[in-house]
Amino acid sequence: MDDASLAVGARVRALRQERGLSLTALADAAGIGKGSLSELENGGRNPTLATLYAIASPLGVPLGALLDFREGARVDGDGVETTLLHTEHGDGRTSEVYLLRVAAGVTRRSGPHSTWVVEQLVVLEGTCEVAHGDPGEEVVVTLGPGGTTRLPGDVPHRYTALGPDDVRAIDVIVTPW
């Protein structure tokens, strides 16, 4: 167990309890196992980005809330790494700025975040395919270095690192909160 895992676990537990949710209720809503959630809350499991997003949505909080908005907090797994660079709170919304790395050939799929979430991606290195929307109705764009796109985060979306190089990008996520 490391300090970061303990801190994330404690934050998830506190948010779950503030909302009056049982371990079973949150696990079911997040689509993860009760044992996995218990291990995460106790700091015995390093959370992946996919797991944290799955938990954040039913708790009604932005991803950064699970990281206690600690700048420099990093989450990785399955060829994707994200580091929280900065957070702004105000006017009923939270804006989070992340450095995102997607390994060559990897696709990062994300289910819908909370309603009205918006993401903006700016590619720094590599070539990235970005898609959002329901299957069969996806809007797809391909971005190289300097390319940018804005997408609704409250629908399924994905990032795929095309070609031989990792994609490095800035991901700005704005959440009503």
From TrEMBL:
One Pfam family named in its UniProt record: HTH_3
Domain of life, per lineage: Bacteria
PANTHER family xrefs: HTH-TYPE TRANSCRIPTIONAL REGULATOR (PTHR46797), METHYLPHOSPHONATE SYNTHASE (PTHR46797:SF1)
Record-annotated HTH cro/C1-type domain positions: 12-66
Keyword field contains Magnesium: no
DNA-binding keyword on record: yes
Protein's recorded name: XRE family transcriptional regulator
Keyword annotations of the record: DNA-binding
Alphabetized InterPro entries for the sequence: Cro/C1-type_HTH (IPR001387), Lambda_DNA-bd_dom_sf (IPR010982), RmlC-like_jellyroll (IPR014710), RmlC_Cupin_sf (IPR011051), TransReg_Diox_bact_type (IPR050807)
